């Protein structure tokens, strides 16, 4: 099966984020860049499918040169080919990104496209489903389990209060959700093999796809209101502390 | 140019989800600025009876797409219907809830209509002709003000971020025929957890972390029960296999916004804080006085949760008794 994986390099989640001087972006000086955690799951799921039915896994990323690290990690995990589309200094929002990616994906013949359900920097939940729309294929998001049969895919996806099991025809796009799999670590042999795997570099302007004029603009960024350290409730025993807490929650915070 | 606002509601089993009223109220606020009308979209099967409820939150018109194919609330059917309702109402702004299905609707519609979209907004307002939203980014570590230029502007609002406000609307109900021929998903099974309160909709959340020491969460469940809340888990607890991933609160889990959040045996990693920072009141119980969570809570108890939590349950039972 020909599988495509969409991948983004993002700031690691354990970092504190600082706002840049222009007030509209984050400071990127000391950032540890990693593969978006949900995209790791996408690579892993693609590799598991390839392991089961054969075929190939191609990873696509729209990103600057440092995104190569994330692509190399995917290759080291076992992906076969990587494609990096350079944004040429421009900042593309989710829809523009989806247009460019869809344009490239259409040049292949992928039966299944796997993406993370969101990127943990933008938190837009947009690229996966938008790519599916632009390609005219069905998608299932937040997938925690999938099963392929002849020309069809059956997915368990999360919704509020439970899961739905839905089925659709291939080609299709699915997005990953926590619980789908535990991504493998790249092995040393994998890392060595990856050095020989092709990374195809393209540019947005070279793709022939017009991402369109920017329609979404970040006007300002700020830190959210910070909760200060709280009051430690004292007491002689657990029971006394509990009683004092309940009193405070009732009379001061008025929350019970 | 149209100034209509389209508010896409969500219902399950013939009952509107709370997010629907929040969506209509957010729409009412915009419609008051643009001149409106505020149009509520109601989609489902056999849902005509509930449609008039949208008037209580200020809908001027209510479009009802009642179709057997919408019975299961599958995303492709909802998107197909929503697309047709957008075409019918020609709105300047489309508002939908940032729920599992709502997110799919927002994302696919943005591609279908070549329209700007902002996800998980905690505020939305008009700035002249432009829609400006406030939305969290980087797991909530940043709040961004974002301008959307283009019509329609698609805004998905975070559940529980903006209150539903009663308002009077003419509420003219109009039945709309939609075609679902292009849909592709079939429902095989619904696996709903009955009796469990959904974390993202809960008014109270009690979370267990690594300090729980194992998969016995009965104390946390008891506290949640007596408070009428939902049970969450930290990433550590999920990684240990003690709780399922759907219980996880945090940057790579669910973002919750309850009135009361009680963290039991949770150390307070940055990613966890990202998931619960919007809580109105935060209580932390941890035996480590240096736990980072104590600097991000309103009330803290340094102590053994296995003694403190049962004592809390007893106190609250007495209060309610």
Kindly describe this structure.
The complex is a heterodimer of chains A (256) and B (321). Chain A is an alpha/beta fold. Chain A has two domains: 2-207, Rossmann fold; 225-256, no CATH class. In chain A, 29% of the residues lie in helices and 29% in strands. Chain A has seven helices and 13 strands. In chain A, strand 4 (56-62), helix 2 (68-77) and strand 5 (81-86) form a beta-alpha-beta unit. The longest helix of chain A is centred in the first third of the chain and has 17 residues, at 37-53. Chain B is of the alpha/beta class and 321 residues long. In chain B, helix 2 crosses helix 3 and helix 4 (218-227) packs parallel to helix 7 (305-320). Chain B starts with a strand and ends with a helix. In chain B, the strands form four sheets. In chain B, strands 7-11-6-1-4-5-12 form a seven-stranded parallel sheet, sandwiched between helices. Chain B folds into two domains: 5-175, 3-Layer(aba) Sandwich (Rossmann fold); 199-320, TPP-binding domain (Rossmann fold, 3-Layer(aba) Sandwich), CATH 3.40.50. In chain B, 62% of the residues are buried. The chains are: A alpha/beta (256), B alpha/beta (321). Chains A and B meet through helix 3, helix 4, strand 7, strand 8 and strand 9 of A and helix 3, strand 7, strand 9, strand 10 and strand 13 of B.
Overall number of strands of chain A: 13
Q: Output the CATH class name of the largest domain in chain A.
A: Alpha Beta
User: What can be said about the biggest beta sheet of chain A?
Assistant: 9 strands, mixed
Mean pLDDT of chain B: 95
Order of strands, main sheet of chain B, comes to 7-11-6-1-4-5-12
- In total, the number of strands of chain B is 18
State the major sheet of chain B. 7 strands, parallel
Strand content range of chain B: 25-35%
Largest interface comes to: A-B, 85 and 96 residues
Order of H and E elements of chain A: EEEHEHEHEHEEEEHEHEEH
User: N- to C-terminal separation of chain A?
Assistant: 56 Å
The secondary structure category of chain B is alpha/beta
Average pLDDT, all residues of chain A: 96
